[in-house]
Write a structure and sequence with these properties.
Layout (H helix, E strand, L loop, with lengths): L19 H12 L3 H10 L9 E5 L4 E6 L4 E6 L5 H13 L3 E6 H6 L1 H22 L2
Parallel strand pairs: 3-4
Antiparallel strand pairs: 1-2, 2-3
C-alpha cells in the first residue's frame, strides 16, 4: 500500500496526484510485477479493452493493480500473499469513491485466461454503454 501507515487509507480529498516517491514506488511495483500481472497487462493497455487502463495507480493510499479511470473500474490480481480482510477494506474504500473492483486469483487467470479477458471486456463495455446512455 502506501508508505505512511498514519495517513488515512482513503482521505476525504482524494485527488489523482502523485509525488516523486509515488512515481518511484509505482515503477518498482511495475518492475516487480508477477508473471500473471505481466501476462495480463498487454491486453489492458492502449485501450485494447475499449478504454485505457493504468497499472500500479495510486488511489488514496493504496496502489491498484490496474484501473480504468474513465469507467471507474479496478482490476486486482490476487496472489497467495493477498489478505482477504485487507482486500475487503480496500474494496470498500474504492467503492465509496465510485470505483467497482473485480478480483481474479492467479490460478483463475492461469486456468481461464480468455474467460478473464472476456469478463474485463464485458465490464468495460457495459460501463461505457451505461455512460453513453446517461449522456443522452
Amino acid at each position: 500500500m502506501g508508505d505512511n501507515p498514519d495517513e488515512p487509507l482513503y482521505p476525504d480529498d482524494v485527488q489523482f496526484t502523485r509525488t516523486r516517491a509515488d512515481t518511484q514506488l509505482a515503477r518498482k511495483l511495475r518492475r516487480e510485477a508477477s508473471k500473471t500481472e505481466k501476462k495480463l497487462w498487454p491486453h489492458l493497455r492502449s485501450a485494447k479493452m475499449g478504454a485505457s487502463f493504468r497499472r500500479q495507480h495510486r488511489i488514496g493510499r493504496p496502489f491498484t493493480d490496474y484501473v480504468c479511470l474513465e469507467v471507474k473500474l479496478v482490476v486486482e490480481v490476487d496472489g497467495p500473499t493477498h489478505d482477504p480482510a485487507e482486500d475487503s477494506i480496500r474494496d470498500h474504500g474504492l467503492n465509496e469513491r465510485g470505483f467497482d473492483v473485480i478480483r481474479f486469483g492467479v490460478q483463475e487467470i492461469d486456468a481461464n485466461f480468455q474467460g478473464v479477458l472476456d469478463t474485463i471486456h464485458r465490464e468495460v463495455h457495459d460501463r461505457l454503454t451505461a455512460n453513453s446512455d446517461s449522456r443522452r
